[in-house]
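Listing S7. Sequence submitted for prediction.
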Amino acid sequence: MRCERRAKSSTGLARPDFFDWLEVGQQEVQQHQPDVVVVILGGNDGQALHTRQGRATVAWGKPDWQGEYRQRLTDFVTAISAPGRKIVWLELPATGRQRFEQKLTVIRDLQREVIAGRGDAVHLDTRPYFTDARGKALKQARVEGFRKPMRLRMTDGVHFTVAGGRYFANKVYPEVLGVLGLEHAAPEEQHTSRPAAAPVKPAMQALAPVAPEAPMKP
């Protein structure tokens, strides 16, 4: 399995004048021709939507915002899709920051709605990964490769630590294998020889990190 990663801090679909994920997404899939595209973005999108030329079209919270953002999501997913290709859309993880969560709730709902309407895409609910039994944001957890429970988030409560990134990746990996029709080996089996009948070299593309709360504007 080969994975190509493309990420850009402080970006999303709201400000194509700053960084245009529609154009970049098309370029990436054309270059790498992935079998699976794994996407996580939107954490920075709770703001006014702009055109490529930098003109604000609708402010956050206005009635038209959701309709326009829904269309941007649809255009983006269409741009990175192809016959036979699967898209795994990762839900923005819970942060525990109340004001930020109010924005993320709107964005998560729209993303879930758009992905649910497609036969080639899977929306992955990440809440079980980052909330505890009481529904509170999970601050630390056992992570493969570390001897003790590790902090998952940086001090801003949004970005992942190195351990948190590994923790998240380990949760997502079996889901990606499932989309590809492959089984996830138990830890003691992961370094053994692959059976001759197993599929080879499914490629996947990873696009966009969770962006910070405060947008970086040009």
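Caption to Listing S7: primary sequence and predicted structure tokens for the chain studied. Strands lie at 2-6, 36-39, 49-50, 56-58, 86-90, 121-124, 140-141, 150-151, 203-207. The mean pLDDT is 87.
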